[in-house]
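Researcher: For the record, we're logging two predictions in this thread. I'll number them. Prediction 1 follows.
Model: Prediction 1, sequence and structure:
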Amino acid sequence: MAASESLDVLVVGAGPTGLALAAQLHAYGARFRIVDRHLDRARESRALAIQARTLEALAPYGVTDELVARGNRAVQLRMHFPGRTVRLPAFDIGVADTPYPFLLFLSQAETERVLGGHLAEAGTTIERGTELVELTAEGDHAAGRLRHRDGAEEIVKARYVVGCDGAHSTVRNQAGIGFEGHAYPQTFLLADLEVDELEKGAAHAYLTKAGMLFFFPLGSPASWRMLAIRPPGTPDAERPVDVRQLQAVVDRYVSDRLHLRDPVWMTDFRLHNRGAKSYRAGRAFLAGDAAHIHSPAGGQGMNTGIQDALNLGWKLALVCQDAAPDALLDTYESERAPVGRNVLHFTDRAFTIATSPNPLLRLARTRVAPRLAPLVMRLPALRAAAFRTISELAIHYRRSPATAEGPHPRRRGPRAGDRLPDTPGNLHAMTAAPGYHLLLGGPREVWDTARIVAATRGRNHLLHIHTLGMSGPWRGTTHCLVRPDGYLAYRAGGADLTGLLSYLDRWLPLPEAEEPH
């Protein structure tokens, strides 16, 4: 059995989560390999929506513009109730502090194509047809036994292994991490196909006493994605899904005649709501569906996985380069596990309300919602708050051990642990280079940048300094440190950098040879 050279990170799974992790590891110069047991990337649409925060988080790796160009950002919502259709401009609310104030509809197949193409251009090979069959801990590294498509096996040694390998994660099972939760009783039908007589450019939701039916605009690999609850007692439930079954469900749920044809892909499945008991066991980490699976309510799944990856990748890289302490890796679970739990709770509640046979909830879906939805959507503040939640812009790490508030912070604006808003414009582009970014606000004469560079010496390759002047929220003298993933690690008012330097000494320490005497 062949043995390969030691790596920093072995990434198992080349879906969107694994591909995003690989993109970040490459940007930070980590030594890694990415393997996937499947011979090809996803060709089905699967996940449909890319949220604003995900587009922001991927922008530093040069893929967001292409994702936006391939996707549909102008989707409207049509809610069909018995005897009434409500037209809602659900995804056009916009907010001023993000370059992507919309929900982007794009097939997961296209998302994987773009991320995979970026890695290929960077010289990274996705090793498909390569399966992790065993994972063991051996002192200062993990040993993974890989089996290739031709049956040959090798042992890969890596300081860390990240399981991005889905709900049936081998990494999770080999690491002995529990996966707790439940399955929903309903069976769902899923298909990518063509639908005649359906208004284009909109997402359609049919909420009836019998169940739910959704059509989402795709464009590729077919015009529409269909998602429906299979009605109880369906006589052909044990047979493979075909167009006839799908048409029968549509005819039951929809009063207007919709004709289904030319399916590209169709299946039935059960939904689960499960979360990993921990996101780390020794040198093994979990991200994406390996850590949490849930209903597709709110389009959170793929987005949460990608953001798991982009929270973890830079931490692994800096620790492997001895630029950060091992304790930085502990912050991955303390930051992302609460996000995962919130997503599981939110999607479970939304799913239960939408599918429960309870007479009161059924009445609310079919009678109350048609009258209430148009009124709610006329309130800009409420729509904006809902957008910030669904788009994941509201996620923060204020309670993280790696987050600190310094003296005299501003009363308004983002706090330590919040994402950096893109105001004034182009802050995200300014802070896109790998590493931390120190933002200095207030009169430029207050800041002696030469002194600051001297005080932060030895960290030049990972610490970038920007003076912002008096624009927008930077009118008062203030300074903040932006993490590599776009969240504020530290902030303080005034020009005294003592607290900042203490923070850097803790989380981005100087090399021993350059410690001050």
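Researcher: Logged. Prediction 2.
Model: Prediction 2, sequence and structure:
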Amino acid sequence: MSLASAPSDLYDLRDYAFEWALVDVETSGLVPRRDRVLSVAVVTLGADGGQTGEYSTLLNPGCDPGPVHVHGLTAERLRGAPPFEQVAGRIGALLEGRVLVAHNAQFDYDFLAHEFARARLRLPVTRRLCTLALNRRVDPPTDDLKLGTLAAHYGVPQLKAHDALDDTRVLAGVLRASLREAARLDLSLPLVACPPRQDPQFAPKPPKAPCAFRNPGRLAEGGPLVQGMKVAVTGETRTGRADLVLRGVAAGLNMMGSVSRHTSVLVTNDSAADSAKARRAHAEGVLVIDESAFLRLLGDVRPGTSHEGTAIPGPAPAPHPVPIAEARSAPEADSASRGTPVPNPALPAVPTPRTPGPDEAAVGSDPGKKRAAKPRGPLSRRRVLVLGGTHPEAVAARTRVVELGGAAAINLSAGVTDVVVLDGGDADRRLARIRALLLPVHDAAWLVAPVVAEASAAGGGRPAAHVLPRGGVVDLPLPRGRGPADRWTVTAAWAQQTACEIDVVAFVLDEDGQVSFDEDFVFYGAPENPGGTVRLLSDGPTEQTVSVDLATLPPSARKVVVAAAIDGSPAFGDVGALHIVSGPGTSAAALVQATLDAATTERTMLLAEIYRRGQSWRLRAVGQGYDHGLGALARSYGVEVDD
């Protein structure tokens, strides 16, 4: 059924009318810079939703086809198929001038970008739409957001999963239905502007092997080097820099690209050097030696302690220069800068954040361990959207929703069951659509002792995600009792912004709370660390995801910190709440959710931490903000960046 023939008497689809190019690729692996496309299918749709073209082909990748049990494409079947460069022109013609659409679109986009780069051609895509991200906004009552699950929900027949052409035809049906739902809810589309991808420079750097040894601390004057010491080099060297680094790595040293308070020694031939590394080393009291002394010490590097041989600590406080309360000066405090708000007497004050105990917070750890009961309350399994109010009043209202066992929503979706309108909320543009959808609308007093109908609950019959308070901790589930799920995701979402952009970032930290090397800082400009264990997925202007492969994180990685930073003048008090959900994989059902909105003047915020606890992993919802920018946050974790 095309959009033109779909029933749309109540909802205008003109704002969703684009020329679309729906894409699906089957690949030899999951890493675009390394693996190859084995088959590709493109289906084009017009602005009315009707199909205008179709093309599919197998491809000869010139390498092992990888997981044949998944895609069914053997080397024999691919023999005689054209290489990508022979069909790139035809694929490019179908993509030109259209919005690229895929389920988990960054995956397909990145693979096409690398294939076009290998063919020395420009990928002619300027915008993309991810149907996975779109359905996260819609929030249909499904167990997960996999393509097959959505197809069944929307009544789209699926004949052969993991067949590129059939998956693309199914995707067309899912897109049409998702657009109808987006129109019904008056949602903006999560379109992503795509940078030009026409040069191999966009591929991440080759993996750097993490150092196998713990950092033993500073080099003492006249003392020996010890395996695991963090060594930085600055200025000109007589030995080639690459060779010098390789010799240090071969000796078991951790050769760093920047200097922090955890650096063991700085190597430079210019004692008066004025580089950023030299200035930081001087400020931190790091010993400075010249190249000759370093080469001499390389001849007798003492054994270090491996990461595997150390006790694994619990979460440590974030290594920031000053706490948030001290970071604000008096003129910047809430009451001085914003005026003293008049509290709503119907709402309780915001409670002091606390960290629940392990048993209280556990949602899926050791199968033999007693699991805590899911939170119960009058708002259990309900999702409540709060409109209007001052910042403190809105925070208090959402906090109250969580106390009553519900989930606090920040955007309108199909999963919203109730709406609370505070002072000024009548001016919210979403309220007209909310009333048209016949959603229950309440005033602030309803949150004192809410009375709800039994009829509707968020998500229909699917399991409800565990709602974490700020500072709450959960054990990550162990599938089949063997170990943590390979890949875990943390998705952050916020209300549409016009005055600023929000960037989600991640830091992979060692036992010192520092990155092992600069490339373990994952952000928009470097969306994957060299080992591919942590990736940033740009799902749209109001949503970004950090994906962590727990099974392949090196032993030196003790914690992954997920944070958000504002690019622009507003603060998080102007942005409002950020909502995070977490679960195994990008399309699986969320197992954990939290709404974080206690910030006011802060410009960076720690959202979540995934950290080791013994042989398992835990996730903590943080919600801690800082007035400084992303540069200062990165430097506190040992990354030297330009502001």
